Write the structure tokens for this entry.
Amino acid sequence: MVSSVKRFLIGRPLKSTELGEQKLNKTKALAVLSSDALSSVAYGPEQILIVLITVGVAAFWYSIPIALGVLILLAALILSYRQIIYAYPHGGGAYVVSKENLGEKYGLISGGALLVDYILTVAVSVSAGTDAITSAFPALHDHNVGIAIIFVLLITTLNLRGVTEAASILAYPVYLFVLALFILICTGIYNVLTHQVPAEWHTPVGTPIAGISLFLLLKAFASGSSALTGVEAISNAIPNFKDPAPNNAAKTLAAMGGLLALLFSGIVLLAYYYGITPNDKVTVVSQIAEQTFGRNFMYFFIQGTTALILILAANTGYTAFPLLAVNLANDKFIPRMFKIRGDRLGYSNGIITLGLASILLIIFFKGKTEHLIPLYAVGVFIPFTLSQTGMMLKWLREQPKGWRKKLFINTLGSVICFVVTIMFFLTKFAQVWPVLLFLPAIVFVFTTIKKHYTAVGEQLRIAVDKPAVPIEGNVIIVPVAGITKVVENSLNYAKSLGAEQVLAVYVSFDREDEREFEEKWKKWQPNVRLVTLYSQYRSIIQPLTKFVDTAQHKAGESNYRVTVVIPQFITKKGWHNILHNQSSLLIKAYLLYKRNVIITTVPYHLKK
Amino acid sequence: MVSSVKRFLIGRPLKSTELGEQKLNKTKALAVLSSDALSSVAYGPEQILIVLITVGVAAFWYSIPIALGVLILLAALILSYRQIIYAYPHGGGAYVVSKENLGEKYGLISGGALLVDYILTVAVSVSAGTDAITSAFPALHDHNVGIAIIFVLLITTLNLRGVTEAASILAYPVYLFVLALFILICTGIYNVLTHQVPAEWHTPVGTPIAGISLFLLLKAFASGSSALTGVEAISNAIPNFKDPAPNNAAKTLAAMGGLLALLFSGIVLLAYYYGITPNDKVTVVSQIAEQTFGRNFMYFFIQGTTALILILAANTGYTAFPLLAVNLANDKFIPRMFKIRGDRLGYSNGIITLGLASILLIIFFKGKTEHLIPLYAVGVFIPFTLSQTGMMLKWLREQPKGWRKKLFINTLGSVICFVVTIMFFLTKFAQVWPVLLFLPAIVFVFTTIKKHYTAVGEQLRIAVDKPAVPIEGNVIIVPVAGITKVVENSLNYAKSLGAEQVLAVYVSFDREDEREFEEKWKKWQPNVRLVTLYSQYRSIIQPLTKFVDTAQHKAGESNYRVTVVIPQFITKKGWHNILHNQSSLLIKAYLLYKRNVIITTVPYHLKK
């Protein structure tokens, strides 16, 4: 039953040899890997205006130079991630780059920050998309959390089906969103050029504004830079591309950069010309769309695709998180289960972990994840800065052909990212301080896990020169609870093992019963020695453990092993289990975990 | 850690021989076993007035003859349960009496009704007591459910400590309640006799009232009879009494009957003389107390002890439920775990089940369990009727000395109980109909469980004349995941068992890896045959199961057994487990439950 539900949800299992078919072409890769970055256009420009409005509406013209700054940063990031893709064609992005050039600790900071960040991406973007939908249908507003969870489950299932299937389905809304914004921007620019937009709607560029400061401009710049989160995803996901993977990834990255620059500057420009004021109730994009088209089909088309892309931005996390987790698991910093490919050849454990963690975040913040955005942005810019700095060191060290140009690009990116990071701390400390706690915590967890794996590795390594001393013989203990077929079955098995000694052990709660049982036993199994243990506290485990300890002590002297043979009822139906005390399960677990004793389970399958 | 918390909560374990010290003397038994019945005084008289007020305040004088009717029923019940105690000195009450005299089906109806009823008792009385407390402290009102659950947990813990300890603590509030009501009644009667209560406050007895009908009077009588729930508890709990148990139980029953009659008639009389009108906000007892004392210390003393006794009424359920469960479990109608005595010699599984079930009820009904009262009352009167009828048949059949008198008492009780039951169905069908569903359901569950136990018993019975064929030999399969100490350890053990064949099995996901492993193996263990299985769907369990099936098929031909020897990591710390995939646990569970194969677990305790 369970397995057929699984089949229905995620499809038939794939053979390992079918891995090649699970790779992405450029069109699909652009759709799944850039949805996060592109969706930022829906809120990035707004963030700039929200900062500027604290000085006054007249300051809005500053959004133009600030947007220019963001575009320069975008160009630097795209160029430098392009260099990363070619330098590290096996993926891993900021984690691998920082680890190899700056050292393990910085690698772990980058990796940890990105890992948490992808969880935040999913929670934040699905919540934002759900908000956009429920504000269109107010009746659904009370069910925000439930709806967001359903979306997360849907995206998780889709990704468990495999990245290509997810990409085939998700490509449509992404391209529709790009198309919608493209039409909006063209129509808007046409209106501006044909002077349909009154000049008094906006202050001319260059108007001097009282109260503007460098700090405020940097703050606006940092806020606007939150539109660049998601740019790093492609560098993490190179293994998902069709061959030649690095080339395809670099081209996809360039296409994404171009689209992002186009949409971002278009929205900033239109917002400026239309004199849009940010507003709690209606987003900037929605205001622009209404100004341009009125409330007709195009308006709703833009609103609908925006809501969809916000939700699908989550998908970028689903592609990048499992691959980053594999890199961390390969280096033994996180549990090795993240390395296992599931039925559909995706790294299912990573996908499921991401889904569950973001559902927990959504539940914990009751679907109100907006104030996580700065935390999320700073979590992106820290690995950005580290990886750019790492690349600088790489060029300085290796000095390949044309390294000065490469160094310049990465230095530019590194400085701007560093400034953005610092601005986040200076201007939004109240929201970003948790980073200062969780980054050291996560690095501590990573190194603790690695320490454990290393210790286990040492304990398991075989000393080739001195093979283990062979076992001399066995003592077998069979706990018996009565004279039944189950006991007969286990005793027969114990006798067949050729052990030096087979002992039946009976725990009694009552002297009378003890004597009776001994008599019956003598008649039934005269050749098997029976030991009876009287338990005055009605515990079976305690006297048995004590007996096993004594036996083990004696056996140890001559390198014998002690085996406890325990019968276990296997009931025909699941609910039957509550009708049997299953003390055998308790005994097994206790002896296995608390004592170093071998446990043999002889199943007895009930037929009725 | 867990075990020291347990020690702190419920105390040190007791030896089986200390059972005698866990018996109750009459004073304590009266306190724990009559709290349910006595607490009914707090709402029983009110129920009568609530029915009469539908005709008018003038009809209140009818409460006097109705109370007389209730007293007659009480006398009949006390006398007939006294007879049951002597006839069935091992306890079991209505279940045993109905089963032995009317047949198994009626026994199960009685037993099932009482079992569910004790759960209802706990939920209803704790909710009612919590309501009484939170109406005194309105700030707590929003936390009703939480507070009620805490009370249930407290009473559960107290009962897990053992019945005598519970009794020692709970006796005080019970006797304080009796004292408080006794002072109230005496003062009230004194006021009435000294003519401090104006005659116009009540209509004289015998005033003709328009609109009164036999149906209404019977309905009022049935409602008032809800004060008699809990009367049967002593007959279920005879084994908890000090020797001579039946005598002591009979005396306690008589004392309880006397107290109940006294308090019940006192409250009815005072309510009549004071002309109390039932009211949603203030209970009848509270109104009487305020009339008598004003809002002084005595008023709050009465209110406080009433709230307490409502909560402690739950304790009667805790004493009777586990003993009834033991009786049912002895007859194999419910899981045998209910027969196990816990550390403190109480039937802990019964106590814990009762606690959990009532917490679920409280959560499900959000602490508003008032409308469960009629359901609960009818659930009591059905077994009352059945046990009285059973006793009638017993006397008719056995005709011992003085049987006519005994027959008369039980016939009277049976008829009245039957009438009360019918009245509940006629007047409160909307609330009591679930009984008609859950009684057949519970009887079905009981008989299904018995059927399973009988079937298992037959399957386990040894045929003495034809002993099982001895096992000829063993084939041992050791799944190996690499060349490590864990594998070495398991192989050494497997070799020591003197089996006909030891096979190492390696599941590979990759042809290259498979070849490499085979080469390494040949160098390391040239004498152990290695079988490699290529798994194209990356499953370990499937190819392994298939291999085991083949081996078992071959082995079966010559009465060999197949044993799978599986190493299991035992990590030093609990959290380490998530760092290891523990595929061995999955393999073990799968083979054990899905195949009839013997599983030997060789633990490997990690030291770091």
